[in-house]
Amino acid sequence: MKKYWLAAAGVVAAVAIAAPSAVGAPTETSTASTTSTASAASTTSAASAASPATGTAARTEPGKVTPAKAAAPAPNPVRTVRPGRRVDAGGGFTVWLTRDGKHWTGPDGYENFRSVVDGNIDRSEPGVSHQSEGDATGVFHSGLYYGTRKAGRVELSDGEGHKTVATLIALPGRPDWGVWYAHTVPADGNGGSSLGVTLYDRAGKLLAELPGFDFPAGRG
Q: Is the pTM of this model over 0.85?
């Protein structure tokens, strides 16, 4: 009987010794599981955080298109002046326009007039006129251009091919006529009328020519 009790006590002791190990095992397993879960969550979270960045990097933004700037319009070669406004043409000469034609004065103060309404010019087609006066210091040239609303340039040229570009003025409202003027070096005995006058449009197309004359030019 005593032998049986000792044997039973040994069995109870064995169970008591084994119990802490059994209780501790789940704790270790749970800790490992928690760590694995945390690691997985961390990996998933990192992957989720990295995914938008990866998606942003992979996305191709459309390039910005800068519209081409329109070319600036060419400056108007004709200066617009009000009726009766005096324009200093240089060298002591003054030019002004009225609805009926061209007016100008020289250093001597003598006033000249060239009509555009008296029937002496045909405004139904492009043309030019030429008046000149000067002395040993230089020659002043002026005239009408008419029959076009697209005048771009008036040139004077001598027999040697030297060219002088004139200044163009006109009244407001795109009239079909205007005035040109220019200065050249002293001319021969014909007062500068030996120079030819050529009218071009704004595209450089020849519109009209007036050849030089061999006789002295008057004031008209």
A: no
Say how far apart CA 185 and CA 160 lie, in whole Å.
14
Q: Tell me what pLDDT residue 35 has.
A: 42
| pLDDT computed for residue 160 by the predictor | 85
CA distance 158 to 143: 17
pLDDT digits (tens, 9 = 90+) for 112-159: 999 999 999 999 999 999 999 988 889 999 999 999 999 999 999 988
Which pLDDT belongs to residue 23? 37
Decide: residue 89, CB within 10 A, 0-12 exposed, 13-18 middle, 19+ buried: buried
CA atoms within 13 A on the CB side of 59: 8
CA 12 to chain centre: 104
| Cβ proximity of 167 and 160 under 8 Å | no
Nearest alpha-carbon partner for 115 in 127, 93, 98: 98
Locus of tokens 């005593």: 2
Give the closest residue to 102 by CA, choosing from 123, 125, 129: 129
Q: How confident is the model at residue 59 (pLDDT cuts 50, 70, 90)?
A: low
Taking CA atoms, 27 is separated from 32, 41, 99, in Å, by: 9, 21, 113
Q: Please tell me the distance from the alpha carbon of residue 114 to that of residue 181, in angstroms, as a whole number.
A: 13
What does the CA dihedral 50, 53, 54, 59 come to, rounded to 10 degrees? 160
